[in-house]
Specification:
The protein is α+β, with helices and mostly antiparallel strands. It has helices at 52-67, 73-89; strands at 6-11, 14-21, 32-34, 43-47. The protein is built from two helices and four strands.
């Protein structure tokens, strides 16, 4: 089965395009990015090379940015790591890449 690379999802009541992309599509200083919710082409992009817990933390982190765009990076990082830790401890893992 081919892994998905793009899908649509509602976060914070807003429809987002969620994409796993090649590393050259995202600036070198980040693993992912989230556009402004007011952008009509809003999207969340995650580097497709991420695996395991790093991927889980990054997906949660960017989803939190989409839901709470005015929260600081520090707050988003703290909550993202806590949620990823919870999910990891109860056994959530990606089954296939």
């Amino acid at each position: 089965m081919k892994p998905f690379s793009s899908f649509w999802i509602y976060l914070g009541g807003i429809r987002w395009r969620f994409r796993f992309v090649r590393s050259n599509e995202i600036p070198n200083d980040r693993w992912a990015d989230c556009s402004d919710p007011s952008d009509p082409k809003r999207q969340i992009r995650i580097r497709q090379v991420l695996r395991s817990r790093a991927k889980l933390e990054t997906v949660i982190h960017e989803a939190l940015h989409a839901q709470w765009p005015t929260d600081s990076e520090e707050v988003i990082t703290k909550h993202g790591k806590e949620l990823a830790n919870l999910l990891w401890k109860i056994g959530y893992r990606q089954m296939e890449d």
